Amino acid sequence: MLSVNRIALAIILIFLLLIPHIASSYIVYVVILALLFSMLTASYDLLTGYAGPLSFCHAAFYGFGAYTSALLTLKTGLSFWLALPISGITVFLFGALVGYPALKLRGHYFAVTTFFFGHFIYLVFLNARDLTRGPLGLGGIKPPDSIFGIDFSGMTANYYLILIFGILMVGFLYALVNSGFGRLIVSIRENEDLAEAVGVNTAFVKVMAFSISAGLAGITGSLFAHFFRLLHPSTFSWMTSEMIVVMALVGGIGTLVGPIIGAGVVTFILEMMRFAPELRFIIWAILLVAILVIEPRGLAGIYARIRGGR
Amino acid sequence: MEIFLLQVGNGLIIGSVYALVALGLNIIWSITDIPDFAQGSYYVIAAYAAYFVVTLVGAPFLVALLVGMCVGAVMSFSCERFLYRRWRERTFRGAARVQLLCAIALFFLFANVANALWTSKAKIFPAYMKGSLLGFSYMRINVLLAAIILFVLVYLFIMKTKMGKAIRAASMDLGMAQVLGINIDTVNSIVFIIGGALSGAAAVLISPLYSVFPTMGDLPLLKALVVVILGGFGSVAGILICGVGLGVLEALGAIYVSSAYQHGYSFIILLLTLLLRPKGLFGRV
Question: Which residue numbers of A have CB closer than 8 Å to B's CBs?
């Protein structure tokens, strides 16, 4: 069975590598969006799927990374290649700062607190006009500086850049969840009290999972900022956070692959419904309820069911 | 000083709207463990229903209020009966998340239905009463009065009736309540009907003061969730105090600190409270 998965993975990778050469620029643009959302949901999965706590503020970290990177390059003239790791580390530290008090809470308390935290950060983006230019949007962001003679002003180069970062991030997350530390993370999800009783420093592990997931979202934000070159607070509102949660849950959390597929599927469904902007979210919400009624574990559950039946 | 009193009054009024939504959420949450985000969209649909009853049929405000409450109650009841109930037994891992996700999906759904049917343009709800007392129009005072009446009614229902006793028992220990012969299906239906009716009432009461638009439910929902956690699933009175207190704090913060962050204060209050008193201000420990 493993070989089937590997073949599927290879086919998908080859397909992704070929896309800019076979598809229109619109399709490439949609695939870039899907890749960015895949990175968000994959990093989100580390916290919610593997460690357990349901978080509603992933878009806040995404936006924090995007604004940090954009402002660093705009105000200090820093190179993108330095701004990207710096924004990742900044968001990682910020995540630790927020996660430490917030993760003392459990269950729905944590969920609702992160929900508000996300909204609060959105308000900061909206109102700190001196820095973010608020509702006017932050424009004039430069594309990534050319490196090794590659010019990043075009769509194709950006596509490969984001694809490479996506593969690196997923590879990192895969290695992380399969490492010893990954098992500590899972032990919290399975039984937090028991994990603590057998000597796992649950507070530290949870905060680390939270901050790593935040930091990766920050890196994704940086990539988004220099690809899209215009930042608006509404991109990082609670709607986006909820979208990430929904994508991850539709795919099936705690599997790493599920949320990535979920992000891809949901992005394409929403793009396909561009013809009816008013009905877009209605159809989408009905689909979501339908998926929940048919298979509450998401696409990963449907896949497991098909394989089990065979 | 005058502006201070005015803002306190405004805070009391908006706070009582938060408290009404929060009361419904609190009862639902404490029995079913669902933070029912969908209440925010029943709020919107109820406001539109009342608006159309008043403008198209010319019904008096009290009828519109009842229509709004019924619309909220019916929607809330149906969503529980046909959706949430499927996952109540929580037979698989993540069932709690499925219910939460379903609530969010319904919130998306109805808010966007309102947007598609009636556009995002705000509709002006006609005034139903003229005159004012001490600088506050009667319509504003009515919000507060109606909220108090509804709170007393819910309090009496929960404390004095047999069904209320069953609800209290179910919120303490669901399994034990079932063993003692309490019909959980009925209890669930009743709490969702109460929740929906309260959301609807809150929406219709506040509509004549502001206006009716598809995203009108977002902020009351957010604030009501804060109030529920601040109140710590405590008493009916605790919800009222927290709701009204939050409204007043926000209104005062808006003029004395910064109006830009008016909707962020609740987050700071929430975080502080949870760090100092993790079970909420009025929580059962």
Answer: 54, 101-102, 104-105, 108-109, 111-113, 115-117, 119-120, 123-124, 126-127, 242, 245-246, 249, 253, 278-282, 284-286, 288-289, 292-293, 296-297
Q: What is the mean pLDDT of chain B?
A: 85
Residue B199's closest CA among B73, B3, B43? Answer: B43
| Domain assignment present for A304 | no
Task: Provide the 8-state DSSP code for B84.
Answer: G
Give the residue numbers spanning the domain of B6.
2-119+149-276
Least Cα distance to B267 among A295, A130, A183, A121 occurs for: A121
Instruction: Decide if A123 and B83 are in contact by the 8 Å CB cutoff.
Output: no
Q: Which residues of B touch A123 (CB under 8 A)?
A: 260-261, 263-264
**Residues B192/B28, Cβ–Cβ less than 8 Å:** yes
**Domain-embedded: residue A175:** yes
User: What pLDDT is attached to residue A309?
Assistant: 56
**pLDDT value for B257:** 78
3-state secondary structure of B97: helix
Indicate the number of domains in chain B.
1
d(CA A224, CA A9): 25
pLDDT in tens, B205-219: 999 888 888 888 888
Select the residue of B105, B270, B271 nearest A285 (Cβ to Cβ): B105
Residues B201, B65: Cα–Cα separation, whole Å: 6
Domain that holds residue A228: 31-241
Rounded Cα–Cα distance for residues A153 and A142 (Å)? 9
Tell me, yes or no, whether B281 lies in a domain: no
Give residue B90's pLDDT. Answer: 67
Kindly report the CATH number assigned to the domain that includes residue B221: 1.10.3470
Q: Which residues, in sequence order, are CB contacts of A103 under 8 Å at separation 6+?
A: A53, A110, A203, A206, A207, A210
DSSP B126: P
- Could you tell me the two tokens for B37? 């985000």
Is residue B134 in a domain? no
A148 and A164 in contact (C-beta within 8 Å)?
no
End-to-end CA distance of chain B: 40
User: Does the residue B182 lie in any domain?
Assistant: yes
B128 in a domain, yes or no? no
Q: What are φ and ψ of residue A147, in 5° steps?
A: -140, 145
Which positions ≥6 away from B275 have C-beta within 8 Å? A101, A104
B260 has a pLDDT exceeding 90:
no
Mean pLDDT of B158-172: 88
3-state secondary structure of B123: strand
Q: What is the pLDDT of residues B24-59, one digit of tens each?
A: 999 998 888 888 889 999 999 999 999 999 998 888
Give the predicted TM-score (pTM) of the model.
Answer: 0.81
Q: Which residue of B has its CA nearest to A106?
A: B278
Q: Which of A104, A121, A292, A294 to mutate to test the interface with B (most CBs of B within 10 A)?
A: A292
Q: How many whole angstroms separate alpha carbon B145 and alpha carbon A211?
A: 47
Residue with tokens 């850049």: A161
Helix (H) or strand (E) holding A205: helix A202-228
How many structural domains are present in chain A? 1
Burial tier of B272 (Cβ tally within 10 Å: 0-12, 13-18, 19+): exposed
Closest C-alpha to B273, from B281, B282, B264: B281
